[in-house]
Amino acid sequence: MTLKSTIELANGVAMPTFGLGVWQMKDGEEVSNAVKWAIEAGYISIDTAAEYGNESGVGKGIKESGINREDLFVTTKVRSEMQGYESTLQAYEDSLERLGLDYVDLYLVHWPVEGKTKDTWRALEKLYKDKKVRAIGVCNFHVHHFEELLKDAEIVPMVNQIELHPLLSQEPIREYCNEHNIVVEAYSPLGSGKILNHPVIQEIAEKYNKTVAQVLLRWDIQIGVVTIPKSTHKERIYENADIYDFELTQEDMDNINALNKNERVGGNPENLPI
């Protein structure tokens, strides 16, 4: 595997298994620089969201990088406040305008919103059928969210982007997604920095002469999920991607798997203040 390795979605689209996440990055120079550095380092996937408020900066970074649009995989998401059928169609056009792009590769429902997500999903299905997006999916879905959506959906979501790291390994939803040919994508793969001092992972990192972050991201790759670490620092962006010259042993994988506590650093889809 390499930084440009991909996984095939249910519709045959090739999605990169590694990318740059830009949550909490400031719009403007901070995010546009991070995007340019990532592309310079060889990343071909950029993940943003309307809710992050930095799509314009992401678009600027893409444009200034000089990369061919078709060589990049861009993801964005419809924010909860814009869910609903017509409002989602408009939200997509608004995102395209901010990004300065003609299409995005993957469009996601950012959070499940009771009473609205089915209409939102119908809008994503229309965007997909009209060939305005290459793939569609969801974020933060648990099994029951899928079961409810799929009562009426014509298209099964192709991706489920969820908080996932060793303290929250999400095995039940990963198993469900695998059974339904839904690719799992990990956000906050470093636990928003909260796992970087964990002694078990520090010991493993020393063994391979790698950073804790590199071990965590390598774990993602080996459990078969897409991962999108975030960093605004050029050297860290390069460093995060340097995970293809080693492989964790089964013992190390088991030791990392054993760290699960179902402990979140972000919001829980079951009790959102929406």
UniProtKB/TrEMBL annotation:
Keyword Glycoprotein: no
Annotated NADP-dependent oxidoreductase domain residues: 19-260
Residues the record marks as site: Lowers pKa of active site Tyr: K77
GO molecular function annotation: oxidoreductase activity, acting on the CH-OH group of donors, NAD or NADP as acceptor
Residues annotated for substrate binding in this entry: H110
Gene3D superfamilies: NADP-dependent oxidoreductase domain
UniProt KW keywords: NADP, Oxidoreductase
Active site (catalytic residues): Y52 (proton donor)
Protein name: Aldo/keto reductase
Species in which this protein is naturally found: Desemzia incerta
Taxonomy of the source species: Bacteria, Bacillati, Bacillota, Bacilli, Lactobacillales
